[in-house]
Amino acid sequence: MAFTIRHTSGFICCSLEPSRLQQLELPHMVANNTDPKRTQYAITVDAKEKTSTGISAHDRSMTVNKLASPITTTDDFYKPGHVLPLYADPQGVVGRQGHTEAAVELCKLAGLYPAGVLCELVNDDGSMKRRNDCREFANTHNLKLISIEQILEFVSPKINLKK
């Protein structure tokens, strides 16, 4: 988490399926979303256990781990907090080609619980990293890079076969 915070905007989000966020009783942040990208934010949370103020990398890691646990309940969180849960489109990247859906889709493809952490990479001047910047960052830090388009291409044939 510290690495993520150091190289990003620090605006840590955790993508989850709508049914899970509803189970956790985490409503949308606003009733009328005017975001042109249609990002569906839920109210922010902090884990109650093993955390202090909620803002440290450790505390946000604990919060994300709680969000990614199928046994967590709404009582495990303080509201508001420092981690932003996101409602993923129920149809994944087929329904919306966003980072929110890509994170959940990758978890599912890996056989993991559908909860993905994401944050926007930034340059030293504070501007957002773009594709070429991300490629350079991935190479520098020995990370893998995948595009939403690649995920969509991978899952689309599987969806067509199910019909």
Automatic annotation (TrEMBL):
Domain of life, per UniProt, equals Eukaryota
Question: What EC number is given for this enzyme?
Answer: 4.1.99.12
Q: Which residue windows are transmembrane per the record? A: none
**Could you tell me what the cofactor note in this record states?**
Binds 2 divalent metal cations per subunit. Magnesium or manganese.
Does the keyword Lyase belong to this entry? yes
Q: Some GO term, biological process aspect, for this entry: which one?
A: riboflavin biosynthetic process
Q: Which reaction does it catalyse?
A: D-ribulose 5-phosphate = (2S)-2-hydroxy-3-oxobutyl phosphate + formate + H(+)
Q: Name one GO molecular function term.
A: 3,4-dihydroxy-2-butanone-4-phosphate synthase activity
Q: Does the keyword RNA-binding apply?
A: no
Question: Which UniProt keyword terms apply here?
Answer: Lyase, Magnesium, Manganese, Metal-binding, Riboflavin biosynthesis
Q: What Pfam family does this protein match (any one)?
A: DHBP_synthase
InterPro entries xref list: DHBP_synth_RibB-like_a/b_dom (IPR017945), DHBP_synthase_RibB (IPR000422)
Names of required cofactors: Mg(2+); Mn(2+)
Q: Provide one Gene Ontology cellular component.
A: cytosol
Stated family: Belongs to the DHBP synthase family.
Query: PANTHER family per the record?
Result: 3,4-DIHYDROXY-2-BUTANONE 4-PHOSPHATE SYNTHASE (PTHR21327:SF18), GTP CYCLOHYDROLASE II-RELATED (PTHR21327)
Q: How does it assemble?
A: Homodimer.
Please report the name of this protein according to its UniProt entry: 3,4-dihydroxy-2-butanone 4-phosphate synthase
